[in-house]
Amino acid sequence: xxxxxxxxxxxxxxxxxxxxxxxxxxxxxxxxxxxxxxxxxxxxxxxxxxxxxxxxxxxxxxxxxxxxxxxxxxxxxxxxxxxxxxxxxxxxxxxxxxxxxxxxxxxxxxxxxxxxxxxxxxxxxxxxxxxxxxxxxxxxxxxxxxxxxxxxxxxxxxxxxxxxxxxxxxxxxxxxxxxxxxxxxxxxxxxxxxxxxxxxxxxxxxxxxxxxxxxxxxxxxxxxxxxxxxxxxxxxxxxxxxxxxxxxxxxxxx
Length: 254
Description:
Blueprint: E1 9-11, H1 22-28, E2 31-33, H2 40-56, H3 58-66, H4 69-73, E3 86-90, H5 94-104, E4 109-113, E5 125-126, H6 130-135, E6 139-142, H7 156-162, E7 167-170, H8 179-188, E8 193-196, H9 207-210, E9 215-217, H10 226-244
Parallel strand pairs: 1-2, 3-4, 3-6, 4-5, 6-7, 7-8, 8-9
Helix pairs in contact: 2-5
């Protein structure tokens, strides 16, 4: 950005703006916008879908049919139910709250963690400590915005607390997870399973992920529906048009 002395606005095509130096922009009077809300439901949908697929072994079950194992070996190995189990949501913002609404339909016992209790989180337990949240959860959803303070917030202690029967679902940012600790736990069985839509250094992944059968891998496409991508593009355009027309920005960050 230092090479663009006439830069007036950075309009991010996405809700996360951790790749933008917001302090630099603020100091230079450069406006920053993003595209929240329009992608919230799709991201929540994928997070819950990944939980279902991983818990019931949907990907492996399809392969069981396709490779002839059903005919030659019989019934697919039993998996774990989703209904009535315990879910933890690390970060009950827009996306986290939509995840919670969906999980209620599965009769789940839902708790959440964050900077403070939320007035809209009726019927959900607030657990301030992420380790304690993981300890009381069968499924831990990570829906936090990425900041320096949240980097590797899901580290070895949280993963250990989630345990060999637990599942980690990340639909936020890769930096919120200590990937080295996650890989070690998945390989050793200290963590039961994971479902991930984001990775450090994506689209290149640590090759250790590719060798694991207890992790569901997705290509960072939680908002990847035709409807949402159109809405994101429209919101980005609306921010740019508003800026150059001297009007209030629809979704200003700075």
